[in-house]
From TrEMBL:
Region (Disordered): 17-68
Superkingdom in the source lineage: Eukaryota
Name the UniProt record assigns to this protein: PiggyBac transposable element-derived protein domain-containing protein
Comp. bias intervals (Basic and acidic residues): 49-68
InterPro entries for this protein: PGBD
Residues making up the signal peptide according to the UniProt record: none
PiggyBac transposable element-derived protein domain: residues covered: 137-348
Length: 356
């Protein structure tokens, strides 16, 4: 005849015979409800460590083609590391920009300064006098008015340049700022560098025709605004059929030909935080470093070590890039190309559920 146990006797029997290593991953509480702590042996003090080790050893693993070992973790499990503190502030102008900006004009001059406008004025006059009239001139305010017309043309889309001054389609602000003939005259002679020294500078700088002004503009974009936590990086093709050695043809773009830029933008405000032109193969880039990694590290350099997150598409995302960013207190979120050798085979299956 089998012996019947009371509830207290059964509980004590289970506790005395429980082995933490036999757990299927659930935590086992080895403390009884009563005060009989003396019934626990000294080996039970190490039970949590044994349980953790058993859980680690039983996790499914998978090795990628290039040797990376991946461990499967279930959503909701406790992290084995302390996550970095994320960047908490929203995007906002820097203290320098807030001190300077009191009007729309001062806001414009934060990005395109008088120090940038004067060389443009000088080189434009130089080109006009070398090619046409020796008395051709343009004052600084006229150059600023010319730029304002360009901005307004971007706001008011019309089929052609001529239509911007049309009585039916044109913007009245444009017609009040500058005549069409004068606008086209300035556009024809507009230059951003010394035409007599360009041939020498272009030997080491493919972007020599505009690099000085461009570098100042990008620096101003970086120093005038602190982006928020999330920054996105992608490419943008600026439509152009100008004859140059770094002109790109991308069949998937609406405008097939153009100059390609790598752009980093603040997620919420769409502000351009940093931008790089693609000029072809960079001789300074190490041969073992991917172009995508080099681009992301350069664009994110001013914003590292703060707990930000960069979002990328599958051209950029890779395990090595994630590790490099993590070493600089930056995380990455992005799609990944299934042909990457560090990706395990199981992730390429199309029938997996979400969060697996």
């Amino acid at each position: 005849m089998q012996r019947r146990f009371t509830t207290q006797e059964a509980l004590e029997l289970i506790l005395n015979n429980a082995n933490p290593c036999d757990s299927d991953g659930e935590d086992i509480n080895l403390q009884p409800n009563s005060d009989s702590d003396s019934e626990l042996s000294s080996d039970d003090a190490t039970a949590p460590h044994l349980e953790k080790r058993a859980r680690l050893e039983s996790e499914p693993t998978e090795t990628a083609k290039e040797g990376t070992v991946w461990h499967e973790e279930h959503v909701g499990t406790i992290l084995r590391f302390t996550p970095m503190e994320p960047y908490a502030a929203d995007g906002e102008p820097t203290a320098k920009a807030r001190r300077r900006i009191r009007s729309r004009l001062q806001s414009f001059l934060c990005f395109i300064t008088v120090g940038m406008l004067r060389p443009i004025q000088e080189w434009t006059i130089q080109h006009a006098r070398q090619t046409e009239q020796t008395d051709w001139f343009m004052i600084l305010h006229e150059l600023m008015a010319f730029i304002s017309v360009i901005i307004l043309r971007g706001v008011t889309k019309v089929p052609s340049l001529r239509d911007s001054w049309s009585a039916c389609l044109g913007n009245p602000l444009i017609t009040g700022i500058m005549s069409r003939n004068r606008f086209q005259d300035i556009m024809r002679h507009l230059r951003f560098d010394d035409m007599f020294t360009r041939s020498e500078r272009v030997q080491t700088d493919k972007f020599a025709a505009i690099s000085d002004v461009w570098g100042s503009f990008v620096t101003n974009c970086i120093t005038c605004y602190n982006p928020g936590r999330h920054i996105t990086i992608d490419e943008q093709l600026f439509p152009s059929k100008t004859r140059c050695c770094f002109l790109q043809y991308i069949a998937t773009k609406p405008d097939k030909f153009g100059i390609k830029f790598w752009v980093a933008c603040d997620l919420k405000t769409k502000y351009i935080c940093n931008v790089l032109p693609y000029l072809g193969k960079d001789p300074s880039r190490p041969s073992e470093e991917r172009l995508s990694e080099s681009v992301v590290m350069k664009l994110m350099e001013p914003f590292m070590d703060k707990g930000r997150t960069v979002t990328t598409d599958n051209f950029f995302t890779s395990l090595t890039l994630a590790r490099r960013l993590l070493s600089r207190k930056t995380t990455i979120l992005g799609t990944v190309n299934k042909i990457r050798r560090e990706i395990p085979q199981s992730t390429r299956k199309m029938d997996r559920k979400e969060f697996t």
